[in-house]
Amino acid sequence: MESSCDDTSAAVLINGKIHSNITAGQEVHKIYGGVVPELASRAHQSNILPVVDTALKKAGIAVGDISAIAFTRGPGLPGSLIVGTGFSKSLAMALNIPLIEVHHMQAHILAHFIETKDEAKPKPEFPFLCLTVSGGHTQIVLVRDYFNFEMIGQTIDDAAGEAFDKTAKIMGLPYPGGPLIDKHAKLGNSSKFKFAKPKAGAYNYSFSGLKTSILYFLQKQVAENPSFVHENLNDLCASIQSTIIEILLLPIPEIAKKYKVKSIALAGGVSANSELRTKTEKLAAKLQIQCFIPAFEYCTDNAAMIAQVGWLKYLSGNFSTQEVQSSARLDW
Ligand code: KG4
Ligand code: ZN
User: Fold this and answer.
1) pTM (two decimals)
2) Which residue's CA is the closest to the ligand 1 atom numbered 3?
3) Atom of ligand 1 nearest to the CA of 274
4) CA-closest residue to ligand 1 atom 8
5) 269-305 pLDDT per residue, tens
6) Rounded to whole angstroms, how far apart are CA atoms 229 and 237?
């Protein structure tokens, strides 16, 4: 079960292989230009049973066939997490099966080890570097083993996904703006506009300054020409996108050398971005390391990645008790 933000997702994993992965998004937030936590919790409540039911049907199993249930304990929105956690605890109790808590960010990273019933893909070798970029997080993680992670750098303010979504909102694009910036950027000139690339020290990131510089720049331009955004939308999107990606990839070569990593991997919703994918692949080729990017379905929030971590914990008997509580902030 995954319910940390605004996607309700259920997956069925049988003997290490994903047999179904069903996700219900939440359209209700679109008109507000961002996720409204209270509405997200309510939508999870109405979506959770149909999503679980569909996942079971697609996998061809009955609820009584389940031998363990893994769920996202955190981090995420408190109300959203409570719905999935409460559901999972109840199901584990009713079926008298093990309950397995999963850390959402670890799951994004371990999504690289997902195997489906139809295909087995090559997996990253340890140690590898994972750039986890989502609407809530921007982290460079050194992955030494399945459950041995070290945070090398992270954002000190906005996440990369927020940088996409907030600048898209300034340009009048609907939420979530990331995929739309990606779409318009394909038709634009990325060198047309130059934006500041704020630094945050060490290997950390900062994106709030970029958002503010774009806001001031556009306010000035729109005061002179009210159609400025409309007339330059593709070039603006291309310039903003390439700035965000340049900021994201800047520290990677130094870190990759320092920690002698064998691969670089992308995780989180922003790894769906087409330019980030191609630029990371090019960078990996230059550094002579391998590059791993999960299938789109496993980049954004999904339950298959939760099931994957659940499977690894299940194999080692790492179970939670009924006392476990969801946690909006969760260390690893
Ligand atoms: O991992 P995710 O589904 O949810 C969180 O845990 O946040 O990530 C959602 C984020 C949003 O900010 C969305 O705009 C961004 O991923 N995103 C993209 C693209 N697809 C999704 N950003 C840029 N380009 C994309 N193609
Ligand atoms: Zn996520």
Assistant:
1) 0.92
2) 300
3) 26
4) 269
5) 999 999 999 999 999 999 999 999 988 899 889 999 9
6) 10
